[in-house]
Write a structure and sequence with these properties.
The complex is a heterodimer of chains A (431) and B (241).
Chain A (H helix, E strand, L loop, with lengths): L1 H11 L2 E6 L5 E6 L3 E7 L13 E8 L4 E3 L4 E3 L5 E4 L7 E6 L4 E14 L23 E17 L9 E4 L5 E5 L3 E6 L7 E5 L12 E6 L6 E6 L4 E5 L11 E3 L12 H5 L3 E4 L5 E5 L3 E6 L8 E4 L8 H6 L9 E3 L5 E5 L4 E6 L5 E5 L16 E2 L9 E2 L11 E4 L5 E6 L2 E6 L4
Parallel strand pairs in A: 27-28
Antiparallel strand pairs in A: 1-2, 2-3, 3-4, 5-6, 7-8, 8-9, 9-10, 11-12, 12-13, 13-14, 15-16, 16-17, 17-18, 19-20, 20-21, 21-22, 23-24, 24-25, 25-26, 29-30, 30-31
Chain B lengths: L1 H20 L8 H20 L21 H6 L28 H13 L56 H10 L2 H4 L14 H13 L8 H6 L2 H7 L2
The chains are: A mainly beta (431), B mainly alpha (241).
Chain lengths: 431, 241
């Protein structure tokens, strides 16, 4: 019994999403147990310059709990699928977190002062007898130890029949969308009992279903534009001005299949697991099982750039299908200037591709390699022939150690990498 | 030949995934099951389009090498023994359906461990629950087990949800698929089918008769090529949603 409980605790800590806020000061992680942990960057301090830029735990709260849908006899997992920050306008921060069915808006605020000197209650909170009060005083705010509180401000529920895979905040900061396998809904932050359905690809006859929505995102600047990706490897760009229901796309991005690569698993590996607009809004990046592609919004017939993440897995697809790894959903991220893209792989490896120099690097997130301030050494996978000393052979890769979620600071070279239940934060060396 | 064996193996693995998906926490994942059913369809097409049927190999390809050799065992691993019975016959939690005649005592033993093992090493999901968690509508009973007629959606509760109610995920009748393939994989390897089935358009009656016929003749090929041809496992699996 004890063993099982321990196992559950371990499982509950698997990180399922990582996201920097708009300034990069805060980093939020969500885990399989429904918890959100927010890290805050240390302020610069003259006394301890070497500690600049370290992230420490700022707030932890339980965002979602497991639920049971009695009508369908279905358990609803509490795992946090995505977190998205809202831009900050005042001292408080807001973020959206979602599990499979319900999106919640959380307010995270600091309290470092406490009012003292109430008239009607004493310092312990006990009510005073009004007849005993002879004088009035004005309560004053006194400093207290910093307390960070998270409160749920909105709960957006009951709008998704299928599992939510994405949420995206609109650039108007008034609306956001949530996408499940077959539908995308548009919400207003203030209204929780209504949402507009803007995409619906559910066929009248479910037997005719051929593809599902896998990810969706709003354009960073144009509040009427969004994209969604599908399990068939296509991307659709939609314009909400065109019609209320955006079932007809404005643009359709698809690369013709390479017939020489056809296999039983061609369809699976072409399924897009993540889609991200560049910060500029000019490009869209997609991740499928073996590659990352960068698309120019003005060119629909093929991607502008294709990067091989781990092509050595192509010959192993059958085994990866057997052990379910082929269904892993890797995410991808842009750096602040859109010049470098990053995505995860197996064996706790993650890859970065420099779009300008066309150079790429493989790095590993592991405790052994990551002493504080140690420099990460590039790794290499040996695909055949003689294995060099530092290389690792494909058959030695640990497929249980996968990096699905990564995040890049919006303006600096700081990255957050989630390796199962560990979070690694790497920074460029500051000279 | 190799393609055929590979296709056969992939079909087994895929069925296992669809099957084990029923018990997983959080409900059936539409995306994953769609992908699995696409693979299943591709593998099935390859299998059926391969020119010759190989002679029955001494050890049929199967997901786990430690299963005992007889080909029937591989199929028996799929036979719905413990797991949810097909809707038209066994009551909830009841004994396996009469049509699953490949289940000799030996197969029964295989089945118990087969249920757990049959996920082809895929992640150690919990063994499927013995009772399906869904009630089955009365209307389903006559048509389940049909390899030719597209199975009806299984209703969560028999009456349709009142308007304005939350939409049903239409989780349904994957057991159809399992029961068809589950009785015997020897049909995939056998040479001549016992007789051509009627055309798919005939509807549920012909199909419903098929498992019954199979039940009447133990050892008879339960799942022969024409049935395989007409079955659209992709749609069957997807109808689950």
């Amino acid at each position: 019994m004890t063993g099982q409980k321990t196992l559950q605790n371990i499982l509950a800590d698997i990180i399922s999403t990582v996201e920097f806020n708009h300034t990069g000061e805060l980093l939020a992680t969500g885990d399989k147990g429904g918890r959100v942990v927010i890290f805050q960057r240390e302020q610069e301090s003259k006394q301890q310059p070497q500690r600049r830029g370290e992230y420490n735990v700022y707030s932890t709260f339980q965002s979602h709990e497991p639920e049971f849908d009695y009508l369908k006899s279905l358990e609803i997992e509490e795992k946090i699928n995505k977190i998205r920050w809202l831009p900050q306008h005042n001292a408080a921060c807001f973020l959206l977190s979602t599990n499979d069915k319900t999106v919640k808006l959380w307010k995270v605020s600091e309290r470092d002062k406490r009012p003292e000197g109430y008239n009607l209650k004493d310092e312990d909170g006990r009510l005073r007898d009004p007849s005993m009060i002879t004088t009035l005083r004005v309560p004053v705010l006194r400093p207290m130890d910093l307390m960070v509180e998270a409160t749920p401000r909105r709960v957006f529920a009951n709008a998704h029949t299928y599992h939510i895979n994405s949420i995206s905040v609109n650039s108007d900061y008034e609306t956001y969308m949530s996408a499940d396998d077959l539908r995308i809904n548009l919400w207003n932050f203030e209204i929780t009992n209504q949402s507009f359905n803007i995409v619906d690809i559910k066929p009248a006859n479910m037997e005719e279903l051929t593809e599902v929505i896998t990810a969706a995102e709003f354009h960073p600047h144009h509040c009427n534009t969004f994209v969604y990706s599908s399990s068939k490897g296509t991307i659709r760009l939609c314009d909400m001005r065109a019609s209320a229901l955006c079932d007809r796309h404005a643009k359709f991005f698809e690369e013709p299949e390479d017939p020489s690569n056809r296999s039983f698993f061609s369809e699976i590996i072409s399924s897009i697991s993540d889609v991200k607009f560049s910060h500029s809004g000019r490009y869209v990046m997609t991740r499928d099982y073996l590659t990352v592609k960068v698309w120019d919004l003005n060119m629909e017939n093929r991607p502008m750039e294709t990067y091989q993440v781990h092509d050595y897995l192509r010959s192993k697809l059958c085994s990866l299908y057997e052990n379910d790894c082929i269904f892993d959903k890797f995410e991808c991220v842009w750096n602040g200037s859109d010049s470098v893209i990053m995505t995860g792989s197996y064996n706790n490896f993650f890859r970065m591709f420099d779009r300008n120099t066309k150079r790429d690097v493989t790095l590993e997130a592991s405790r052994e390699n990551s002493k504080p301030r140690a420099i990460l050494k590039p790794r290499k996978v040996c695909v055949g022939g003689k294995r060099r000393k530092d290389e690792i052979s494909v058959d030695s890769l640990d497929f249980s150690k996968k990096i699905l979620h990564t995040a890049w600071h919006p303006s600096e070279n700081i990255i957050a990498v989630a390796a199962t239940n560990n979070l690694y934060i790497f920074q460029d060396k500051v000279n | 030949m190799e393609f055929k064996l590979e296709a056969h193996r992939i079909v087994s693995i895929s069925l296992g995934k669809i099957y084990s998906a029923r018990g997983q926490r959080g409900g059936l994942k539409l995306h994953k099951n769609l992908l699995v059913s696409l693979v299943l369809r591709s593998a099935r097409q390859v299998y059926l389009s391969e020119p010759c049927c190989p002679p029955e190999p001494p050890a049929a390809p199967r997901a786990l090498p430690e299963e005992p050799p007889p080909p029937c065992a591989a199929a028996a691993a799929w036979a719905p023994g413990e797991p949810p019975p097909p809707p038209d016959e066994a009551p909830r939690g009841g004994p396996r359906r009469p049509g699953a005649d490949c289940e000799s005592a030996r197969a029964r033993r295989c089945c118990c461990c087969g249920c757990c093992c049959c996920e082809a090493g895929g992640g150690g999901a919990a063994p499927p629950l013995p009772c399906c968690s869904r009630k089955r509508g009365a209307g389903e009973r006559g048509q389940a087990g049909s390899p030719v007629k597209k199975p009806r959606r299984e209703a969560e509760e028999p009456p349709p949800p009142p308007p304005g109610e939350q939409e049903d995920m239409e989780t349904g009748n994957v057991a159809n698929l399992i029961s068809i393939f589950g009785s015997s994989f020897s049909g995939l390897l056998g040479k001549d089918p016992p007789g051509r089935r009627r055309a798919p358009r005939d509807g549920g009656e012909a199909a419903a008769a098929a498992p019954a016929e199979a039940a009447a003749e133990p050892g008879q090929i339960c799942c022969d090529e024409p049935v395989l041809r007409t079955l659209n496992p992709w749609s069957t699996a997807i109808v689950a949603f």
